[in-house]
C-alpha cells in the first residue's frame, strides 16, 4: 500500500475531479509552489498510484444507449480455460469492465452497446462462440443513479 500524506491526497482528489488541471493550477489550488507539486504528481504516476488519464464519454450522446451486466458461469475452472475466457473477453470492445467474482457466477461483465438488438448479437455471436461458458444471466440498466470513478482520498496513517 502506498503511503499518502495530506498533500498527495489533495492532489489525487483534485485530479479525479479534473484530470486536465495543469501543475500550475494544482499548485495555486494547494497554495504550494510549482516544483514540489510537479514532483509529487510525477512520483504518484511513477509509483502507479495514478494509472492513467482518460476522457469520460457520455455513452448516450455517442449512441450507446444500452448498458447491461452479464453474469457468466464457466463449465470448467481450469487455469487454461480461465485464461482463454479472459483473453477472449479482453478483445471484446463491448465489454467495458470485467470482474472475477465469487458466488453462483464466475465473472461479471459490464457491456455497453447501441441497443437490445446489438446486445443479442453480442450474446449469441461473441459470448455464444466461447467454448467454456456454462450459463449467462443478463441484467439491464434502466437508469444510472451514480456513476463515479473517483476514490475517496485520505492521508495514510504512518
UniProtKB/TrEMBL annotation:
The keyword Transcription applies. Coiled coil: none annotated. SMART domains: HTH_ASNC. PROSITE patterns: HTH_ASNC_2. The keyword Iron does not apply. InterPro entries: ArsR-like_HTH (IPR011991), AsnC-type_HTH_dom (IPR000485), Dimeric_a/b-barrel (IPR011008), Tscrpt_reg_AsnC-like (IPR019888), Tscrpt_reg_AsnC/Lrp_C (IPR019887), WH-like_DNA-bd_sf (IPR036388), WH_DNA-bd_sf (IPR036390). It comes from the Bacteria. Residues 4-65 form the HTH asnC-type domain. Keywords: DNA-binding, Transcription, Transcription regulation. CDD domains: HTH_ARSR (cd00090). Pfam families: AsnC_trans_reg, HTH_24. PANTHER family: LEUCINE-RESPONSIVE REGULATORY PROTEIN, TRANSCRIPTIONAL REGULATOR AZLB. This is Lrp/AsnC family leucine-responsive transcriptional regulator/Lrp/AsnC family transcriptional regulator. It comes from Dyadobacter arcticus.
